[in-house]
């Protein structure tokens, strides 16, 4: 009714355009500009936000989707792990080889600072730091080699863990008749053989040669770890550089030179050097007088240059005094002057001793005499006569000796090394080494030689403890020959005394400034600490690293050949559970092991209870069963399997579908 009333409403007026009167015409105006812009902005927003929302939804779906983990080989057996080990080994070998070559070519491969002897002895923080720095070249090589050994041991451990799986998988690509044995697969355990080289022998018997070799190398790493700390050592090795050397003085042997100066200071120095082990003068040794040279550099070190060196020697021969007595060449006149007449190498000599009385009885006599000789028989002789005065003797002496010497003077060009710079403590020119050029050695007669040698016997000893009149040369030579713990005779004593006396006299007296200095090139060597490679430890470490490198390549090839099998390996107890779950033959093998162990335990326990029954009467079988059950729970089944070859020889293999199969050998089938 209501609907009808509505239809019949008088307000419903028909319109000319066909619309009913109840329908209002669309009187709304078109949208404004701001509304159109807002509408377009919302469309753009929807266009860009929808893909982002879609991406986020896809990510959430991927996270919610749980995929099984990808099977991968252990990192140490993967190509990345083996490449890391190979690079590590190569770098160590290259480093040792490089520093060894540098040590050989440069006498050390790098400079090292001076370090105090100990950390506690260091006074300053800087010294303590240097002492700690010295640990760098001992600790770092040992650490690097130890890390390499640890990485190699980890690789070996992974290979040992995968070896049972590799053994089980061998028949998968061949035939079932080539199955592995239980002792090489499910019972294989290299971890218990910890003693050095025992594990290697065990692996060798199993024909696992790669594991056997790597086990030996593993123990070699243990040995070279501490040895690596001795690869690098510190040595005091000089470094050299060329410098300009100047010679400003030369030996002046002219007659108007300074040779006439007193020789007594030279005698005093000679006595101190030979009798009291004093140091020689600067620019001289016990043999040579060195023409001094210098350089402008003040750097402390050893200065080496070519210069002229001078020396003097005596060619001495002993004269037999007893022979002179026997042939009548010793005479004495009324004034107790004793004459000795002899010929030494073509020169006739008459030597005499006089001026003695009974108060000199028991005193030592040592005197030197100079004699001119013809030019053709070497010009001169220096005679040393020694003995003990004995007033009761026919010729007033006992233990008498005569030594006749020919003087020789030499000069040559020599390479001389002397201290220079601050480390000489104000005394430059201390000779370190002299290497004469043999081809330049020549005999030489300085112009002052004869006048100088004539005066040598004239320098007398002034000693209140000795009333004899002795010359200084004879006193020094005699005292030097009689020095305790020496094995030199008067011939050697004369030669050494003359050499030191000339070197000291020439160095301190006869060098005068040159009119024009002489320049040449020399070498200044600075002593300093340098690091160098010790050959024996370095060669041993390099040898072991080379073995490790070859073994790593072997492992890489072996791992590549068994890459598919190694990826299937699952470590720890979870892997064992997956491998053993629901596989044929496993339960049979375990039951056989338990049954055999239980039978063995029951026999042992029953025997023990039988002895008790003899003493205490009958024993309950329930007690025996409980004892056997307890023994099975606590017993070591693995050890039991090891004791029975029959159980170790069960065939074991993994088929292509991943199922573990265990089959008893033919002999085991007939066993109870």
From TrEMBL:
Residues 1-72 are annotated as: Disordered. The keyword Protein transport does not apply. InterPro entries: DUF3433. Coiled coil: none annotated. The keyword Transmembrane applies. It comes from the Eukaryota. Keywords: Membrane, Transmembrane, Transmembrane helix. Residues 54-67 have a biased composition (Basic and acidic residues). The chain crosses the membrane at residues 81-102, 129-154, 209-232, 531-560. It holds the Pfam family DUF3433. Residues 1-10, 17-35 have a biased composition (Polar residues). This is Uncharacterized protein. It comes from Hyaloscypha variabilis (strain UAMH 11265 / GT02V1 / F).
């Amino acid at each position: 009714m209501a609907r009808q009333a509505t239809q019949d409403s008088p307000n419903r007026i028909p319109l000319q355009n066909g619309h009913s009167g109840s329908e209002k015409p669309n009187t709304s105006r078109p949208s404004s500009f701001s509304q159109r812009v807002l509408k377009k902005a919302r469309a753009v927003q929807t266009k860009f936000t929808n893909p982002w929302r879609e991406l986020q939804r896809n990510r959430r779906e991927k996270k919610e989707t749980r995929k099984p983990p990808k099977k991968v080989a252990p990192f140490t057996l993967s190509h990345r792990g083996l490449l890391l080990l190979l690079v590590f080994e190569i770098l160590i070998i290259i480093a040792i080889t490089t520093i060894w070559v540098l040590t050989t070519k440069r006498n050390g491969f790098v400079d090292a600072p001076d370090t105090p002897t100990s950390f506690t002895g260091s006074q300053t923080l800087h010294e303590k730091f240097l002492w700690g720095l010295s640990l760098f070249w001992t600790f770092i090589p040992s650490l690097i080699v130890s890390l390499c050994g640890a990485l190699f041991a980890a690789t070996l451990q992974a290979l040992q863990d995968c070896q049972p799986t590799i053994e089980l998988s061998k028949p998968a690509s061949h035939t079932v008749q080539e199955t592995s044995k239980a002792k090489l697969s499910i019972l294989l355990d290299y971890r218990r053989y910890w003693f050095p080289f025992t594990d290697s022998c065990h692996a060798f018997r199993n024909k696992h040669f790669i594991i056997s070799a790597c086990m030996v190398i593993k123990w070699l790493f243990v040995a070279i770890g501490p040895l690596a700390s001795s690869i690098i050592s510190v040595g005091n090795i000089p470094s050299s550089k060329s410098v300009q050397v100047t010679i400003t003085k030369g030996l002046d042997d002219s007659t108007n030179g300074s040779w006439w100066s007193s020789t007594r200071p030279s005698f005093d120095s000679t006595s101190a050097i030979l009798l009291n082990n004093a140091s020689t003068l600067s620019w001289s040794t016990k043999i040579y007088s060195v023409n001094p040279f210098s350089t402008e550099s003040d750097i402390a070190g050893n200065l080496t240059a070519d210069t002229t060196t001078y020396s003097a020697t005596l060619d001495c021969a002993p004269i037999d005094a007893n022979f002179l007595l026997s042939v009548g060449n010793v005479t004495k006149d009324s004034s107790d002057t004793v004459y000795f007449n002899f010929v030494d190498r073509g020169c006739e000599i008459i030597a005499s001793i006089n001026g003695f009385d009974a108060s000199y009885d028991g005193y030592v006599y040592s005197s030197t005499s100079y004699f001119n000789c013809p030019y053709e028989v070497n010009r001169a002789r220096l005679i040393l006569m020694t003995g003990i005065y004995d007033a009761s003797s026919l010729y007033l002496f006992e233990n008498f000796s005569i030594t006749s010497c020919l003087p020789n003077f030499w000069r040559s060009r020599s390479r001389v090394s002397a201290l220079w710079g601050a480390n000489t403590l104000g005394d430059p020119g201390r000779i370190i080494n002299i290497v004469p050029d043999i081809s330049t050695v020549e005999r030489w007669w300085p112009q002052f030689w004869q006048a100088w040698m004539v005066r040598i016997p004239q320098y007398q000893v002034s000693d209140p403890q000795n009333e004899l009149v002795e010359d200084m040369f004879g006193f020094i030579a005699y005292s030097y020959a009689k020095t305790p713990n020496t094995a030199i005779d008067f011939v050697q004593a004369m030669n050494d005394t003359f050499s030191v006396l000339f070197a000291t006299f020439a160095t301190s007296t006869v060098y005068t400034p040159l009119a024009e200095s002489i320049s040449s090139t020399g070498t200044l060597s600075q002593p300093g600490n340098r690091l160098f490679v010790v050959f024996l430890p370095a060669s041993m470490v390099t040898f072991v690293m080379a073995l490790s490198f070859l073994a790593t390549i072997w492992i890489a090839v072996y791992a590549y050949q068994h890459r598919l099998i190694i990826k299937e390996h699952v470590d720890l107890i979870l892997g064992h559970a997956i491998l053993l779950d629901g596989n044929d033959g496993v339960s049979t093998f375990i039951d056989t092991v338990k049954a055999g162990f239980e039978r063995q335990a029951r026999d042992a326990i029953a025997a023990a209870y039988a002895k008790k029954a003899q003493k205490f009467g009958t024993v309950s079988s329930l007690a025996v069963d409980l004892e056997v059950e307890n023994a099975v729970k606590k017993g070591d089944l693995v050890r039991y399997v090891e004791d029975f070859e029959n159980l170790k020889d069960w065939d074991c293999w993994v088929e292509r579908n991943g199922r573990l199969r265990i089959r008893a050998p033919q002999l085991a089938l007939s066993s109870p």
